[in-house]
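Pipeline run #58 for the internal structure catalog. This entry was flagged by the ingest filter as a single-chain record with no existing model, so it goes straight to prediction. Upstream metadata was stripped on purpose; only the residue string is passed forward. Reviewer on rotation: M.T. Logging verbosity set to normal.
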Amino acid sequence: MEQRRMERLGIDTTVIGLGCWQLGADWGEVSEEHAMATLHAAADAGVNFFDTADVYGDGRSEQLVGRFLRERSDASITVATKMGRRANPHVAQAYNGANFRAWNDRSRANLGVDCLDLVQLHCPPTSVFSTDAVFDELDAMVDEGRMRAYGVSVETVAEALTAIARPNVASVQIILNAFRRKPLEQVLPAAAAAGVGIIARVPLASGLLSGKYDESTQFAASDHRSYNRHGEAFDKGETFSGVPFEVGVAAAREVAALTPPGATTAQFALRWIVDQPGVSVVIPGARNPEQARANAQAGQLAPLTTPQLDALERIYDERIREHVHANW
């Protein structure tokens, strides 16, 4: 699989990674057996970048990834985790050195490593991105050998641009897909110029861009696609990329009609992200080995054609833009 350089992190990542939120919680039940098989299937397909967080399943995702690392000790794998959402209440004051080190200790124990590859602030309050003391603490933790580097996960373009201006931020994780195009305008060019890696999350708009849902599709009560459609638990942009479900289903039908023979709609949507200049790695989630393998195959598709790109832009402008573009 194609690899791209994250300059500030000093590693090469496969263009398709694996997001491990599904393996922890909030997407319905995934057994430990299926979770481990999914992790191994992704690695077998060439994936070398795995993204998790300390709150996914209250540490379950990190623990599963840690077991996976022990089972594949010969592999060159990068694991990115996140910290900050364990704070209760989730306020800017919680982003301090004492909490950072406690969360870092927990993640290192869960993953079974002495030094974490990459630690991302997990969508903190906006003021955190402008607080020098926060980044001084993160720099100190790198010096202490707790982590190789740090990055941020953001909700908005403005937050991303503030983070990119920080000299030691190695990566920015942001929602980017055919239904969330705003980062193309400023964030990707700024990150490329600064050598900051871009980790594209929610690449299938919580499954909308798989083309498999219709207006009658129901999700489990434990699935955020049931309980967070209006931001009841966290930012609503994390669920269906902030697109109203029925609007997204209709738009996804048009995307599906553009999918070339031999590819799935999900692969087509992932390839669109891979084609965007400045993207380092795309992190679709998977609930089973088949999904992990299919996602990885998106990295082998031919780049999208100009007519396909134009059609996707038209779908966004006509159906999606009004619902999302001004919000994030």
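catalog note: The longest helix spans residues 306-324.
catalog note: The mean pLDDT is 95.
status: ready for reviewer M.T.
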